[in-house]
Amino acid sequence: MIEANLDDQTGEGLGYVMDQLLTAGAYDVFFTPIQMKKNRPAIKLTVLGNPQERAALTKLILAETTTIGVRYQTWQRTIMQRHFVTVATPYGNVQVKVATYEGIEKRMPEYADCAQLAQQFHIPFRTVYQAALVAVEQLNNEDD
Amino acid sequence: MIEANLDDQTGEGLGYVMDQLLTAGAYDVFFTPIQMKKNRPAIKLTVLGNPQERAALTKLILAETTTIGVRYQTWQRTIMQRHFVTVATPYGNVQVKVATYEGIEKRMPEYADCAQLAQQFHIPFRTVYQAALVAVEQLNNEDD
Amino acid sequence: MIEANLDDQTGEGLGYVMDQLLTAGAYDVFFTPIQMKKNRPAIKLTVLGNPQERAALTKLILAETTTIGVRYQTWQRTIMQRHFVTVATPYGNVQVKVATYEGIEKRMPEYADCAQLAQQFHIPFRTVYQAALVAVEQLNNEDD
Amino acid sequence: MIEANLDDQTGEGLGYVMDQLLTAGAYDVFFTPIQMKKNRPAIKLTVLGNPQERAALTKLILAETTTIGVRYQTWQRTIMQRHFVTVATPYGNVQVKVATYEGIEKRMPEYADCAQLAQQFHIPFRTVYQAALVAVEQLNNEDD
Amino acid sequence: MIEANLDDQTGEGLGYVMDQLLTAGAYDVFFTPIQMKKNRPAIKLTVLGNPQERAALTKLILAETTTIGVRYQTWQRTIMQRHFVTVATPYGNVQVKVATYEGIEKRMPEYADCAQLAQQFHIPFRTVYQAALVAVEQLNNEDD
Amino acid sequence: MIEANLDDQTGEGLGYVMDQLLTAGAYDVFFTPIQMKKNRPAIKLTVLGNPQERAALTKLILAETTTIGVRYQTWQRTIMQRHFVTVATPYGNVQVKVATYEGIEKRMPEYADCAQLAQQFHIPFRTVYQAALVAVEQLNNEDD
Description:
Six copies of one chain form a homohexamer. The N and C termini of chain A lie far apart (40 Å). In chain A, the strands form two sheets. Chain A has a four-stranded antiparallel β-sheet with strand order 2-3-1-4. In chain A, strands 6-7-8 form a three-stranded antiparallel β-sheet. Helix content of chain A is 38%, strand content 39%. The longest helix of chain A has 19 residues, at 125-143. Chain A is of the alpha+beta class. The first copy, chain A, is built from four helices and eight strands. The first copy, chain A, has two domains: 2-72, Transcriptional regulatory protein pf0864 domain like (Alpha-Beta Plaits), CATH 3.30.70.1380; 81-143, Ubiquitin-like (UB roll), CATH 3.10.20. In chain A, helix 1 runs antiparallel to helix 2 (54-64) and helix 3 (111-121) crosses helix 4 (125-143).
């Protein structure tokens, strides 16, 4: 986890750097609103990535933002096993992420598939998403 | 109430503009963290002021920030009556704001007085503030 | 809509006042983190309520918080028609809110019912909620 | 200005609805983190648009989100006059927005042009942006 | 400290999981508003707990939320010594937490006691809290 | 990095403690809005400092705030080399921070100098800042 506090960077520039960091291989990038000295609203940039990528991600942050330093630290992670199945909805097929860990199993429709079908059929995103959840549940029941 | 969304302004510049607006006569100025399009973290600037000052405050916002427009609207206000009394604490006198409204009475130690005594005596701010609250309560009891 | 900025109130006291305002008949009460002068993090309290209740809600805010004034303004509202139906899930019945407006129809499981069944059966909230969504969809299909 | 509080909507769905509202002609769409009853973190959705578009934008919000109501109110706006000029940087041309209002004149490089050149030349966004600011200043000086 | 970023979870579900985690023995649970890719407002869930409870708390997070992974790390803590004393206010007894550390001593009225008396006497929370602070100060003075 | 969650501290007191911590030698102090149990909005205080100063900074936090404990952990840092140069603008000299790291070089006008000149000449902060950026770029070009 790499962090930097940014109080002399514009929001425009931050949107740009998020894209650059994700393209460069960061697992995840997020912004937290913070409040710094001298009445300055600021943003804490957090970048999660592979430790092997730390030097490259650090260099990208220093090149693209106004910060003159970053701080970092290794966190451990517990990640569920994942695979994908496809379910049929009235609007077309949707990929479903199946995540498992010590007896827990979660099945979650993929955002991108639901969004694409919603736009194609001019229907609410929620309608496709719920249809996918129904298809997922039926899949669950057939498995039992 | 005047508002502007700022996504291309630095936090440094925002701290500066808060000071300028307060100096120019705004009742209050505050920042709210918001999230705009294209993954841009941004700040909503809100300025409360006398309607007669709206043109001057608007011009100051347009001159000092990167926004190309502001929005505004008149809100009504309900304000308590206020006067000040002085109470004695072990560390010296503290001004107390007394606010009243339809049978409600609140007495609140002034921040600046407590902060100044805390620094003078090298004691926690909390210690002076609580001493002032005690003095306020005793004042309350003598009044009854 | 009634608003007040609070920079000399504790979070404990704010949790308390939210309860009081909801009990007193506010439609909704919410907190927004803001940043005020002198490096003070603060909270904007927003209370939505019936205009007839404004005087009572104002008095409650002035009595329970440290603010010495509130601001207010009337907003218009567009509200969907609502009624409730009950659906059966494997874990028991769940009330479903049905909201309609100009051809839009949304059916949403009630939080409280799902939470209660999740606790009763020692299963995740998500499991009950998704089961209720499935039952809702089947209700939709029967209607067509 | 149209607002809705959303405590039963996912962040994924909110990213989707922001795109839909901008496509439908909203001037601006932004999210503010708020805190609602029952320990629920939530998002306030704010949509700025032409009053003539209010009915259409309201219907889109009700269709795409889980809210059962929106609130709205007309704000006045003060907007600077705008036109565009083109400046030459070492990396290519950049459009510059020139905004004027009662003697104030601001010239701001367009984000999209700077971002595109930064990606083309594999250089930091900041480098292009500052080069554009320099070109803008030189334009200012020639004007005098 | 266990953390997870949640962009596909509703606020309703998050209020529920906070209760579950506190019931399961977490020291503390809190939410931080963050901003993730694709214009998604999200919540960072942070859980503080005994390292021995980490596996159980992790499993609860994975079961109750939509995240497919958590990250964690051990932090050191410096905690003040605590004991409770009871003080008398005009409204009844209030427990006071006394915390000490290397010559620092803080005495803080318990929230729950103040809230309960405020409701019982139909008086502001602030009134009871300040009365308890006064009683605490008097306790301080008797000690000297 | 030292952190404490504060739900029974006022914003006034927090502005005071930020000043105290910076005076005591902290590298940086910032506030993050968080949401704690029982509907309490709260602030996470983060203090960055030299590990040798940890005991002193911890004691200051415990003395000045209402928290009964802090948590801490050591982070590694990557910091750019820095030196200052002076550039001439039409309004006077401005110090420019030059930061370098593995081939990256950034030159950033000092906030305090720009703010002072803006106030002296009654011109927008942005005007001085951009003039300093232009002077910085010209310096860059002369260097090549």
